[in-house]
Amino acid sequence: MERGEEADAVRLDMRLAQLDGAAGLVDKHISNLVKARRRIQASDEPSKRDQVKAINLEIEISMRQLNSLVEDVLARMR
Q: Does residue 77 register a pLDDT over 80?
């Protein structure tokens, strides 16, 4: 492996490590959102439909952002 190839491999490893950390944070965030959604659905609050929709949207946005990051890292690997 040449010097430039080593640097590329190190940068890729760093991006993968950062991505793994980000995925862990997103997973924890989504887990908390799902728990909150369950509590809201089980409640008698009149506005629970809107609250559940907002949580679902936040989950969707978080997953889209993570998927975008994964796609970017995978594209750089090629």
A: no
The mean pLDDT of 36-63, rounded to a whole number, is: 96
Take residue 27 and report the two structure tokens written for it.
């997973």
Task: Using the CB atoms, write b or e for 43-63: b if 16+ within 10 Å.
Answer: eeeeeeeebeeebeeebeebe
pTM score, whole prediction: 0.78
Boundaries of every domain in the chain: 3-77
Helix axes 3-42, 48-77, angle to 10 degrees: 170
**In which residue are the tokens 């949207």 written?**
57
Tokens of 51: 């609250």
Show the tokens assigned to 25. Answer: 């944070």
Output the CA angle 7-11-13, nearest 5 degrees: 115
